[in-house]
Each structure stands twice: as structure tokens, then as C-alpha cells.
Amino acid sequence: MLAVNYDPQMKSAGRSSSLAVWSGVLLSLLGLALIGWVLSSLNDLHAKLSAFSPKFASVLIALVLTALLLILGVGLRFLWTARMTDRPPSPDAAVAADVATAAEQSLAAAGRQIELIPDEVARRALSAEPRRC
After folding, report:
1. Has residue 14 got a pLDDT over 80?
2. How far is Cα 124 from Cα 6, in angstroms, rounded to an integer?
3. Which of 4, 41, 83, 108 yields a CA-CA distance of 20 to 30 A from 96?
4. pLDDT tens digit string along 47-58?
5. What predicted TM-score, i.e. pTM, was given to this entire model?
6. Cβ-defined contacts of 78-81 (< 8 Å, 24+)
7. Cα–Cα distance between 9 and 94 in angstroms, integer?
């Protein structure tokens, strides 16, 4: 069982979360700027291509706009995911800083997991197994 020390005074989790939020905002703004630039370029390209093949020009615009909307969607999804990670850790994830207390918590958690095993023979075997700290 992996035990993680949780110190509420640590700011590294907030910093990485803040970085993720700003990265999402930056990607969204970059996506919007890219859409604007490509739309103006597409307008020029459509004007030139429609003289030769109006259908090809329309299909090309539809494909490029779809690709740009997908890029924007990925940026917004990244922003939404970054905001979802701002939740505080659950109390179950908190482990004491003292090694002995953390080991006791780990053993108690292992005991609770063993109690959940429906097979009586396996539960007895695991309960009788010596505990190593």
C-alpha cells in the first residue's frame, strides 16, 4: 500500500494546478487567434478557388473549419479538466507525517481491506500473515 504524506502547508499542488489553468487559457486564446487568422486566409483562398471549382472550395472550407473547432474543443477540455483538479484531497488520502503513526494507519487500512474479502479462508490466511512495517 502506498502512503503519501499530505501537508496542507505545501503549495506545489496549487502551483501546478494554476499552471494547468493558465495553460488552458493560453491554448484557448491561441486557438481563437488561429481560427481568426485561418478564416481570413480561407476567405482569400475560397475566392481564388471558387473561380475554378466552387464545390472543392466549399469542401475545403468545411474540413478546415472542422479541424479548427476540434483544436478549440481540445483546449477548452484541457481548461475544464484543470479546473476539476482544484478539489482538496479526500481525508482518506491524508497520512500522518510521523512514520510510526503512518504505519499504524496503513495497517489499519489493510485490515479494513482484509475484512472486505468475502472468501473466509483467504481472509483468515491474510489476517494470520505477519505484518511487516
Report:
1. no
2. 32
3. 83
4. 888 888 889 888
5. 0.40
6. 78/20, 78/23, 78/24, 78/27, 79/21, 79/24, 79/25, 79/27, 79/28, 80/24, 81/20, 81/24
7. 13
> CA-to-CA distance for 75 and 26, rounded, in angstroms?
9
Q: Is 104:113 a contact under the CB 8 Å cutoff?
A: no
For 107-130, letters b (16+ CB in 10 Å) and e give eeeeeeeeeeeeeeeeeeeeeeee
Residue whose cell numbers read 503549495? 11
Task: Give the helix ranges, DSSP H, for 5-116.
Answer: 12-49, 54-84, 99-115
Phi, psi for residue 5 in degrees, rounded to 5: -75, 130
- The cell 489476517 sits on which residue? 127
Select from 132, 96, 129 the least CA-distant residue to 3. Answer: 96
Q: What is the spatial distance between Cα 39 and Cα 64, in angstroms, rounded to a whole number?
A: 9
Which phi and psi angles does 129 have, rounded to 5°? -65, 135
